[in-house]
Design a protein that fits this description.
With 324 residues, the protein is an alpha+beta fold. It is built from 13 helices and twelve strands. It binds flavin-adenine dinucleotide and iron/sulfur cluster.
Length: 324
């Protein structure tokens, strides 16, 4: 592990000032970053600990949910208002990692965790995301777990966060703070596709941090569900996951929100499925037609073509569960 200086600011302004130095990085719960430091995959010279900055509140009212960036995953998952109004968020959190990791891991850190691509996490291999221009061994190598949507000739790694998938389906907004003040961006615009710069994963500017995530209250959010399919039942990342929110009246779908995980290089919205459901009856035949187009545009590698079918089936099942 490379030596670094640790600062522990006790205000947002002090944290932003500390993060101005070249090579600085924020640390929240440390559950992902510490491992990356130990493996020399991240080599910051300055760590800015966000523990004393605050930002851990969880607030909900009739119009929206606001999760502070430093709210613990476990606190958000047990919060009664979150459970009542945004069940897909709770289910995504409960399906993530382990209770120990969720007790330490934060909302902001979860959204910014790095990919689980094995080549990225092993400095013995080349990796364009870790070392731009060095190559992508996953494209012709072990790619069973990789993305089938949004990949490029430079990177096909999936985004690992379950929470980000639920937030993408529910049209969450991410609040950012940097030296130029505050800005709010839809989560759909927060993550970048890899294209030829897979090392740049988000629109965050140097020294800029996430301070909160907000999600509107709605019928679709109240009637939402997160389904995660994986190789083993716990402590495992998604092979395929689907977040669904359904707003229905008298058995007719007024509004459907869908996003998928484990299949895209970023949390993957499914607008074509949403359009196929709008105005239709809440019934299996409709779900079947809509789910059959879920993997449109997919471009699997040699070992992960199965994700196309798995995605269609997961969408169908998640729709059934959200409508039950
Ligand atoms: C064994 C294991 C299994 C796991 N399984 C899952 C799983 O199934 N699903 C899942 O979703 N996750 C899973 N995770 C990942 C886990 O959820 C993340 O490690 C955790 O959410 C990261 O939060 P943290 O606060 O510890 O972030 P840190 O490790 O402290 O930080 C992660 C990154 O975010 C940056 N950062 C943190 N907060 C901010 C902020 N507010 N603004 C700007 N940058 C910030 C840091 O600089 C760093 O780059 C697993 C982790 C482990 C170790
Ligand atoms: S898929 Fe992306 S993260 Fe994995 S080796 Fe290729 S460039 Fe690196």
């Amino acid at each position: 592990m490379q030596a670094f200086h640790l600062s522990q600011p006790n205000s947002l302004d002090a944290a932003l000032a500390a993060a101005r130095s070249h090579g600085a990085k924020f640390i929240a719960g440390g559950t992902d970053l510490m491992q990356l430091l130990k493996d020399n995959i991240e080599v910051p010279t300055e760590l800015v600990d966000l523990e004393r900055v605050g930002l851990s509140s969880i607030q909900a009212d009739a119009s929206e949910l606001r999760l502070g960036a430093m709210a613990r995953m476990s606190d958000a998952a047990v919060h009664p208002d979150v459970r009542a109004g945004w069940p897909a968020i709770v289910q995504a959190l409960e399906a993530s990692a382990s209770p120990q990791v969720r007790n330490m891991g934060t909302i902001g850190g979860n959204l910014l965790q790095r990919t689980r691509c094995g080549y990225f996490r092993d400095t013995g291999f080349a990796c364009n995301k870790r070392e731009p221009g060095s190559g992508c061994p996953a494209i012709a190598g072990e790619n069973r777990l990789m993305a089938i949507l949004g990949g490029s000739d430079h990177c096909i790694a999936t985004h690992p966060s379950d929470l980000a998938v639920a937030l993408t389906a529910l049209d969450a907004m991410v609040t950012l703070h940097g030296i130029n003040g505050e800005r709010r961006v839809p989560i759909a615009d927060f993550y970048r596709l890899p294209a030829d710069t897979p090392h740049i994963e988000t629109i965050l500017q140097p020294g800029e941090m996430i301070t909160a995530v907000t999600v509107r209250a709605s019928g679709a959010a109240r009637n939402s569900h997160y389904l995660k399919l994986r190789d083993r039942a716990s402590f495992e990342f998604a092979l395929v996951s689907v977040a669904v929110g359904l707003d229905q009246r008298d058995g007719v779908i007024e509004h459907a929100l869908l996003a998928a995980g484990g299949v895209g290089t970023r949390p993957w919205r499914l607008p074509q499925v949403e359009a196929a459901l709008r105005g239709k009856a809440l019934e299996d035949a409709v779900f079947g037609d809509a789910s059959s187009i879920a993997a449109g545009g997919a471009s699997p590698a040699q070992q992960n073509g199965f994700k196309r079918i798995l995605l269609q089936r997961a969408v169908f099942r998640a729709l059934q569960m959200a409508s039950a």
